Amino acid sequence: MIKVIVSHDVDHLYGRDHWFRDLIYPKMWVRTTLELFRGQITGHEWWLRNTSCFRKYRHNLQAQMDFDREHGIESVFFFGMAKGLGMSYKPAEAKPMISLVHDNGFDTGVHGIDYQSQDGINKEYNTFKELMGYDPCGIRMHYVRFDEETFGRLNVAGYVFDTTEFDKPSCGTLKAPYMVGDMWEFPLAIMDGYLPQQFEKAKEKTLEILDRCRGMGLTYVTVLFHDYQFCDDYKDIRDWYVWLMDYIKDSPDYEFISYRKAIAELGGTL
Ligand SMILES: [Zn+2]
């Protein structure tokens, strides 16, 4: 039996997040135009993605939560408490969205920016806590950045779990959860952005990864899907997520679990 943990990094909240704050929109125009000419996306997707800057919201939190709830997925949502690498909303702007997710019964944590300094890491933890009045459930670093000291620093900051370890050249880290001090590290096995961006190929690659996990005897497998892609703008990868969740739900070999319950099973508490 493989237990699948589903997580969502909330990289974007509002269309205005990136107005005069970063270069996300001009970069997106160049990238999507190249993808359109290469036949990797449709004209409809090009249009939807490039007009997303004028929409009020760039997240799909409600639709994501509704889907996850219907599928019995106790997912977790990570929110930025600092800006960087194209994540440009402010903590105060995130607050109503974190409350929305929390009130819907899902766990919320920090999508970390600073991975190199203890002060910066502590600051993001405390910003979340002061903003929301409760502790973040855990953390994943934005762009899965870490160095050899990062996990130790996250433990010192007080996080119960981190789920950042990800080997980019291998497109995932297939490894059992392990402890760093008092903190659990859940390596990330499957990330939407590191799969082929075409439905059939993404599906094929995912089945290959799951086979390897089974071969290695892993009990816990962590999946990351960005909620901003849970819409028609990113049809192939959205359809991949829907397929994967149906596949896990319907297969006797898999079940969903949350980080919270996995930690309880592993002998810790959250
Ligand atoms: Zn991110």
Write out key terms for the chains shown.
270 residues, alpha/beta, TIM Barrel, three-stranded mixed sheet, 41% helix, binds zinc ion
Average of pLDDT: 95
Number of helices: 9
Q: Structural class of the helices, strands and pairings?
A: alpha/beta
- Structurally, the number of domains stands at 1
Instruction: Note the gap between the termini.
Output: 23 Å
Proportion of residues in helical segments: 40-55%
CATH architecture: Alpha-Beta Barrel
Characterize the biggest β-sheet: 7 strands, parallel
Number of strands: 10
Low-confidence segments, given as residue ranges, are none
Global morphology:
globular
So what's the oligomer here? single chain
Q: What percent of residues are in strands? A: 15-25%
| SSE string, helices as H and strands as E | EHHHEHEHEHEEEEHEHEH
According to CATH, the homologous superfamily is Glycoside hydrolase/deacetylase
- Under CATH, the topology is which? TIM Barrel
The CATH class name reads: Alpha Beta
Hetero ligands: zinc ion
Using only C-alpha atoms, the radius of gyration works out to 18 Å
Short description:
The chain has helices at residues 24-37, 43-51, 61-70, 91-103, 118-132, 150-157, 199-215, 235-250, 259-266; strands at residues 2-10, 76-80, 107-112, 139-141, 161-162, 178-180, 183-185, 190-191, 220-224, 254-256. With 270 residues, it is of the alpha/beta class. Helix 1 (24-37) runs antiparallel to helix 2 (43-51), helix 5 (118-132) runs parallel beside helix 6 (150-157) and helix 7 (199-215) runs parallel beside helix 8.
